[in-house]
Every structure is written in C-alpha cells, then in structure tokens.
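Hi both,

Apologies for the delay on this - the queue was longer than expected. I finally got the flavin-adenine dinucleotide-bound model through. Below you'll find the protein sequence and the ligand SMILES exactly as submitted, and right after that the structure tokens for the full complex including the ligand.
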Amino acid sequence: MRPDVVIVGAGLFGLVAADRLTSLLPGAWVMVLESTDQLGGLCASTVCPYTDIHYNPYGTHILATSDPNVWTYVAGRARMISHQRRAYADIDGRLVPLPLGLEAIRLGYGDATLTPEAARALVERDAAPHRTGRAPANAEEAALAALGPRLYETFVRGHITKQWGTSPDQLAPGVFTDRFGIRFTPTAGLRSAARWQGFPASGWGDFFSRLVDTRDITVLRRHAASVRDLPPYTHACIVTTPIDAWFDHDLGTLARGRICVDWRLTDRRTAPATATATYPGPGVPYYRTHTPEHLPGQPANPTEKVLVGYEHHGDGPNAIDFVLRTPDNAALADAYRARAHHADGFLFAGRGTTFHDDMGTTIAAALALAARLAKTIERSPAWP
Ligand SMILES: Cc1cc2nc3c(=O)[nH]c(=O)nc-3n(C[C@H](O)[C@H](O)[C@H](O)COP(=O)(O)OP(=O)(O)OC[C@H]3O[C@@H](n4cnc5c(N)ncnc54)[C@H](O)[C@@H]3O)c2cc1C
C-alpha cells in the first residue's frame, strides 16, 4: 500500500494540511516525513521539568487572526485560551509599550506631558527631511522617513540589528514597515488588532499530538532533502521545507541568519516582568526575552527560579535559520517559486517557501491547499 499524499515537514503547515485532508477525504492515508523527533516545527512546545511551566523552545507562539475559518478550526481541535499579545521595549529598565505610540514618543523626546498633537508635530518635524519623494530602498530609509532619527536610534536600529544580525540599511523596507510603524495615541502594548488571539490551554505540542492521533496519518522520522528521498505515493506531495535545498541549491543558496533562544532558570528578582520584552539598547546582548510564566493558564510556580528565554542572533541549542529579507534574496526566492510552479505533482508551501508568514496565515493557507487538493483527488480515477 502507498500513501495517498506525502507531506514533507511536520510543522504547523504540514500537520494542519494532513489533518484537513484526512477529514475531507475519509479513508485517505497521509504520510508526513519529519527530520526531527518533534511535532510542530517552530511552534513546538514542551514543559519545563523544574518549574512545570509550559513553553515554546523556539520562542513564544501566540496565534493572532481575524479569519473566522482559522479560529473555528483551532477552537474545534483544542480548548483555546484567549490572550491578547502585548509587547514592550525595555529602555534602560523602563518598559515602553509597543508598537511605537505616544508612550514611546514621550520617552524618546523626554517629555511625559506631550499631547498626541504635539507628539505628531515633533515626529513630523524630524522625519520630514528623510522623505525623499521616492520609495525607501531599505529598512533604515523606511524607518527614518516614518520616525526621524531620534526614535529610530532609540527603538529600531538596535532591535533590527540584533535580530537580523545585519544593519537595517542592508534589509528590505518591509523589515521595518511590517513590524514597527508609529501611532500618536497610547498603544498599551497591544501589537495586534486581530479579532482572535490565543493558544491551546494544553500547549501547541499537545495540539499537534492530537492532530496526528489517527491511523489515517503516519508521521515518519525521515530527512527528505529531495525527490530522491520520497516513498512512492498515489496522488501528490506537499513540500514545506526550504525550497532552495529541495532543488539542490541549483539556482543559488538563499542567504540566512540564525536566531536562538537560550533558556535559563533565572532568579525571580531579576526576571523580566512581562511575557515578552525587546531590548534595543547596545548594552544588552539579546534582543528579546520570553517569560512564559506571565502567560495565562500556567500552573503556579512554587520555586524561586523563573524560566526565561533570551533570544539572540547566532548559534545555540534551539537555533533556527531564517531567510534574510535582502533584495538579492527576494529575486532568488521569486526564481525558485517560478521553478516550483512548474514542478508537476509537487505543491510547495509553508515557511520553506513563504519564509515569513505568521501562524494565522500559515493555517489559512494549509486549510485552503488541503481543500483544493481534496477536490482534485476526488475527481481522480485513482480515488476509490
Ligand atoms: C522566533 C519566532 C517566533 C514566532 N512567533 C509567532 C507568534 O507568536 N505568532 C505567530 O503567528 N507566528 C509566529 N512565528 C511564525 C511561525 O513560527 C510560523 O508561521 C510557523 O511555524 C510556520 O510553520 P511551517 O510548518 O510553515 O514551518 P516550520 O515550523 O519551519 O516547519 C517545517 C518542518 O519541516 C521540518 N523539516 C525541515 N527540513 C526537513 C527535511 N529535509 N526533511 C523532513 N523534515 C524537514 C522541520 O523540522 C519542521 O518540523 C514565529 C516565528 C519565529 C521564528
């Protein structure tokens, strides 16, 4: 017997697609090939044996979506805890809510009494000389045109440099525009206006284990680097792993950075006071901390130690690769996608091809691809 569909990669995309395909096609058999012994890829989660705190080794993962299909899907598979993501920048020990808003402008200009109108006037004054009339060529130009030099230096330059391991003037404008921006009202740390935000009460790891707890889905531990590593299958193969590796890097290799979260049991007195905080300042070696104990639904931690993840650029035990958003990479990625488009019988999707999607976009895309593929398979003469 051969599986109807093979999926390469048991990350969020691969497992949601497998689950949806087997629901839409009763009796279908989906095989998922995964090179690690973990389910869920970057969204994997586990429990700290010392504090009993639930955490994501690769960084806190909270789903934020306004797509009813996505929320209905996850809420149908797990009890979800609603939790609005909040983000703060730590500037010399002071927590400033993100995205950048009135609180940040007041701190940046050292005037706690600035009104929204006065804040706008100051930012406009400083940003205007950086608006050249042409589209910004890189993330630094985009930030200067939106914020002016003072807020850029205080909040943005260090953050981007530490996260991406390279200067903002080497990165695409979207590195700034997708994540930062500026408002002139208080933001209170609410980074996303998405209608539904949260995570499964029993953690993403448990969510993924339940998805594959059926005889219709087989997860096989196998590194599948190319078509040569695939078992025979009847209908289709979905590839969610790095697209350049799949094609033996024959058009070139996409430039990648590496980030890593070092998890340490930290003294309660020095542990961060929020679930996530960023550190744009040059004196701090990491750019973000994760303190999952501050998320709702966690068990009481009776110990004096707090589990804290220190996220920094570079190598380490939980290191992951990510594709740098440079102009060269964008052109190469387009060339690989065009190539993938003509690879008959293969569907390329997930982070390996899209690089920077969030969980909501990833789930929506996996559900949509599974629906399209199920229709094609139903019409195929090889389908019972
Ligand atoms: C630090 C960080 C924090 C994030 N936080 C959030 C958040 O809070 N909210 C949010 O919405 N999004 C967040 N994201 C984005 C989110 O992680 C992604 O949208 C999602 O994980 C993408 O899932 P995927 O299945 O496409 O990719 P992946 O998770 O990368 O899964 C790919 C899988 O393929 C496997 N694999 C790779 N190569 C091979 C091979 N050759 N053979 C077999 N298997 C292979 C990998 O081991 C992995 O299991 C975050 C991303 C990062 C980097």
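Main takeaway for now: Residues 80 and 200 are 4 Å apart (CA to CA).

I'll put the files on the shared drive as well.

H.
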